[in-house]
Amino acid sequence: AEARDFDDAVFARPDPAAPEGFELIVAIADVAWYVRPGDPLDRDAYARGNSCYFPDRVVPMLPERLSNDLCSLRPEEDRPVLAVHMRIDKDGRKLGHRFARATIRSAKRFTYEAVQDLADGRTRDARFGPVVEPLYAAYRALVRARVDRGALDLDLEERKVELDGAGRVVAIKPRKRLDSHRLIEEFMILANVCAAETLEKKRLPCMYRVHEPPAETRIDSLREVLDGLGMRLAKTALRPKDFGRILDWASDKPWRHLVNTMVLRCQSLAVYAPENAGHFGLALSRYAHFTSPIRRYADLLVHRALIDAGDLGEGGLTSGHVPDFVKAGEHISSTERRAVAAERDAMARYMAAYLADRKGATFAARISGVQKFG
Fold first, then answer.
1. pTM (2 decimals)?
2. In the 8-state DSSP scheme, what is residue 15?
3. CA–CA separation, 300 vs 294, rounded Å?
4. Three-state SS at 61
5. In Å, how far are 221, 222, 262, 263, 370 from 233, measured between CA atoms?
6. pLDDT tens across 181-215, in order?
7. Residue 247 contacts by C-beta under 8 Å, 6 or more apart in sequence?
8. Helix, strand, coil percent content, the chain, rounded in steps of 5
């Protein structure tokens, strides 16, 4: 509800050419039209690498005139986009895709909670009910494809800090994870796959999102913990599906949160790189971030390459400064880690402030990790 930078708009309808299949559109803010290679806005966006989100503010990658206004897909306003039109079958397998540059006029800005209420029948809307229904039907097809390929699905709590007008913490609550969140995630994942496939086919530079398999030493630590909980893990190379079986086994156990956390800590760190090594966690052979150019520089690079790939006009890579993709990947991976560390540190400080007047109190707790020393 508090978001102001709207990167994406989505649409779905039944595909007349594919029985029980769907046509999907993911439209993404055309930041490349405004931020050209090598100009001052571009140099500053590169230096920042990404936006940074805190409980009380955002440190944006781009000036607010762009991030909250000209590039933001606000409802009932004309906005330039780079859109991907996709077709999937009834089991969520992609049948084809194409990219286009366009101007859209978003019909509605939903919050996740509002669209979920509409989908679940808690509210009614004669205009948007028929629009939301095929979105959820397409989402269910994409979930079938996700399950089939064995992508990781970690159950990890995120927390939301609630502040009063004076900036004091009044509550820290778990964020609800709804099907509406998952719907957008699945649409964005498919769009990102299309971006990587297109650039590979055209033999153009691509900034992949790379997630390599976990190191064997980390798997050994996980294996030791699971052994203590009564689950034997085979001493063979693990696939994403194997981790999925671990999570399924723990889903109804009292140590469910511990196992999810341990599986997360077992994973390699995802990075940006021009050399493709696949995405282990999503069980995908190629993947590139395309859907958030307002807040991630990697996505802006991918947009520029796609503009060249489709001969879609101005703002492509070849129309200006072409960066060293190896160096750029290392830099934006570093700025991402910096932002994550800052966000975690801010959350820890807000939690400390919230608990400052509760010294001596007793709380329920759960184990979040196990090491050799305890």
1. 0.94
2. -
3. 8
4. coil
5. 11, 9, 14, 13, 17
6. 999 999 999 999 999 999 999 999 999 999 999 99
7. 152, 153, 154, 155, 259, 260, 263
8. 40, 15, 40
